[in-house]
Design a protein that fits this description.
single chain, alpha+beta, Alpha-Beta Plaits, Calcium-transporting ATPase, cytoplasmic transduction domain A, Rossmann fold, 7-stranded mixed beta sheet, 6-stranded antiparallel beta sheet, 25 helices
Length: about 725
């Protein structure tokens, strides 16, 4: 299966996006399609043996829309001067049209040559000419409406198109009758209704586009983090190139005050880099030869040459943007309610309008009264606000999360995080910094500590576990050479094994001692080290324990505060660790966790998660994304605390790129506010239609309440603005730092 994201042109409301989504999902070879109205794109999973991009784009065309090719970037363009000028001109024309058509009713001064009471023909022709200008201005609406009706996916443009053309054609007939001398039709011309409806639709769309662009701002800022150009060095010659021209292996130069262009590894120089946009670390980080650099980092004070490793879509920033866009394109369960309603809404409105029109005529009303009621129903019921209700809120929240170091891979997480009642924490690297240091060495062998640590460090250099870092760093700091390792094996949850100088070396916790049935005379020593908060490593050489090494970790600064907040919110917190009981309980007590499950293997962690879910707990698992992957995958929401550079390989639902536990509280808070906001949006959208459709039908005429197409189109604009303003409030959520 292959996945592609296409940019789509021509979508104006939820009926459009729903219609396209349904059409694509019906096609042979497409396993899943999800269309995003706000981002104007479609995420499509398909069988590449059956389909290719060209065929999929043909499906998009058949559905009445246009594919602009693969979605490459989030474009936020300021409205062009030409577009603004055009809008101003039509605003003036709209005022002029309204004045000519209605000024005499309000006893305003009128021009004799186009006074309907004196020169009815001139009056009608003047309105006709002005309305033609608006028909041209809104031709895209009429064209899309017709096209979508033909393709069986009627949308907002279809409603407007039918309404506008109905009143326009009737007014042309009225003009013809006036020219023939029947002046009774002067008061039955509805050119202004056609024109003003188009004007207000364009106004609403103009506001929508500005709002959608603002909605995407937080995501687009991530794109702009990287520079547009960079200096590369080839054959000792420096050359300025665009980022697209950089290839893997190229030597890129960064001087003080410049941003890192692509992910890579430093081969020359030393500098302090600001990586706060990824890691959240406010202080510049010192980097030297061998260190990795992330695209978008700011070089404060040094000259660097680095080898390009991840370019284009492979870079950390590109991966973050891809994940955020992909998440925005997934459907939250609450969104499916609006989608289902919208799918039936437009055909239902057309049916209601037709039935009302017929009933009006049967009851003896004049044709023009029935027609205007028909048009008013079509215009007032446009489901624009309904279509914006969920995607606007989701995209704002996704951007808010991304800009605060929370990468949410599916939008349903934003809906479900508020349900969490149990959070399981791994210890090392999650509740602690994972920056272990060698605290105590109990050496039972006749070799010196440096020689002992050379064996341990050489074997640990083959491991990716956080526990390996202090040993590797010790060898580097003391300039001790790594020994060659053969037959390396990682025993998940136990330790590691390998051969050095033809001797088998085993490193791990007490489980590895039991596994290899090694006699353990040092249980009491282990207990004493554990009581002081040490994680314990047994060192075994040729089936004999030759040392016990105690490693100390530092508890995260805000761990206690975060646990306190969760406990106050009645969310159960559990520590789940492979470490020994004494060390785990000591740290748990320090930060306020009362339930501790220790000495567990990765598979056992997953079983504990499953058991809690069977007890109807909504479980969030928070771990390092490596050893905890089975538990992360089995939890309702898996959260990994990562460095921010491993996101492409991560299998969790949420990634905290800034290693900040406050992000968990922020995620739950954003979830609560987002769901509340979506419900408010859906309420106002449904309430608006439930209120306005009966008024448009004329059910409230007996008490003096009625509307015409112009008021209906203006009301529709205000409905959308209400939803837009409400969704925008999500940007102001106060988050913990």
């Amino acid at each position: 299966m292959k996945k592609i994201i296409l940019s789509i042109e021509g979508m104006t409301c939820s009926a459009c996006s729903n219609g396209l989504e349904k059409y694509l999902n019906k096609q042979n070879g497409i396993t899943n399609a999800s269309v995003n109205l706000v981002m104007a794109n479609a995420t499509i999973e398909y069988d590449e043996k059956i389909l290719n991009q060209q065929k999929i784009e043909e499906f998009v065309k058949q559905a009445g829309f246009k594919s602009l090719g693969e979605f490459k970037e989030i474009k936020i363009e300021s409205k062009s001067k030409k577009e603004k000028t055009k809008f101003i001109i039509f605003t003036i024309l709209a005022i002029l049209l309204m004045y000519i058509s209605m000024g005499h009713m309000l006893h305003l001064p009128t021009i004799e040559i186009i006074n309907p009471n004196i020169n009815a023909v001139n009056y009608a022709i003047c309105l006709f000419i002005l309305t033609i200008a608006f028909i041209i201005y809104g031709f895209d609406i009429l064209k899309n409406g017709y096209k979508n009706l033909i393709h069986g996916t009627p949308n907002m443009d279809t409603l407007v198109g039918i309404g506008v053309l109905s009143s326009f054609l009737y007014s042309i007939f009225g003009t013809y009758m006036i020219i023939k001398g029947n002046y009774n039709y002067v008061m039955n011309l509805y050119f202004e209704s056609s024109a003003i409806v188009i004007y207000f639709i364009k106004l609403g769309r103009y506001i929508d586009e500005i709002s959608k662009d603002k909605t995407k701002e937080a995501i687009s800022k991530l794109v702009k983090i990287t520079p547009e150009t960079a200096i590369i060095k080839k054959n000792n010659v420096e050359k300025e190139v665009t980022l697209d021209e950089i290839e893997k292996g190229d030597i890129v130069i960064s001087r003080p005050g410049e941003k890192i262009a692509v992910d890579g590894e430093i081969i020359l120089g030393k500098a302090h880099l600001d990586e706060s946009f990824i890691t959240g670390e406010s202080k510049p980080v010192s980097k030297e030869i061998g260190a990795k650099v992330i695209a978008g980092s700011m070089n404060y004070d040094g000259y660097l040459e680095y080898k390009a490793e991840k370019i284009g879509k492979e870079s950390t920033i590109s991966e973050i943007v891809r994940l955020v866009v992909q998440a925005s394109n997934t459907k939250a369960p609450i969104a499916k309610i609006a989608d289902t309603v919208s799918g039936y809404f437009v055909p239902a409105v057309i049916l209601i309008a037709i039935i009302t029109f017929i009933v009006y005529l049967i009851l003896g009303n004049q044709f023009n009264t029935a027609l205007i009621t028909f048009v008013t129903i079509l215009v007032v019921a446009c489901p624009c606000s309904l279509g914006l209700a969920t995607p606007l809120a989701i995209v704002v929240s996704e951007g808010l999360c991304a800009s605060n170091g929370i990468l949410v891979k599916k939008s349903e997480i934003l809906e479900n995080a508020k349900k969490v009642d149990t959070i399981i924490f791994d210890k090392t690297g999650t509740l602690t910094y994972g920056k272990l240091k060698i605290a105590k060495i109990l050496n039972y062998s006749d070799m010196e500590n440096n020689k002992l640590l050379q064996l341990v460090g050489s074997l640990e250099s083959k491991s990716t576990h956080p526990i390996a870092k202090p040993f590797i760093e010790y060898l580097k700091e003391n300039k001790i050479e790594e020994l060659e390792v053969h037959d390396f094996e990682n025993l998940s949850g136990h330790g590691i094994v390998g051969k050095i100088q033809n001797e088998e070396i085993i490193l791990g916790n007490s489980k590895i001692i039991d596994k290899y049935e090694i006699e353990n005379k040092y249980v009491e020593d282990e207990k004493k080290l554990a009581e002081n908060g040490n994680s314990i490593i047994y060192v075994v050489k040729e089936k004999q324990i030759i040392a016990l090494i105690g490693l100390n970790d530092i508890v995260r600064d805000n761990a206690k505060e975060v646990i306190d907040v969760l406990n106050k919110n009645k969310i159960e917190t559990i520590m789940l660790t492979g470490d020994n009981k004494e060390t785990a309980e000591k740290i748990a007590k320090e930060i306020g966790i009362t339930k501790v499950i220790s000495n567990v293997l990765p598979v056992e962690k997953a079983n504990i998660v499953k058991k809690l879910k069977e007890e109807n707990k909504f479980v969030m698992m928070c771990g390092d994304g490596i050893n905890d992957s089975p538990a992360l995958a089995n939890s309702n929401i898996g959260v990994s605390v990562n460095s921010g550079t491993d996101i492409a390989m991560d299998s969790s639902d949420v990634i905290l790129t800034r290693n900040n536990l406050n992000s968990i509280i922020n995620l739950i808070n954003i979830s609560k506010k987002t769901v509340r906001n979506i419900k408010q949006n859906l309420f106002w959208a449904f309430f608006y239609n439930c209120l306005m459709i009966p008024i448009a039908i004329g059910l409230l005429k007996p008490i003096g309440i009625s509307i015409n197409p112009m008021i209906a189109s203006l009301a529709m604009v205000f409905s959308s603005i209400t939803v837009i303003l409400n969704a925008s409030r999500l940007r102001n959520i106060k988050l913990s730092k």
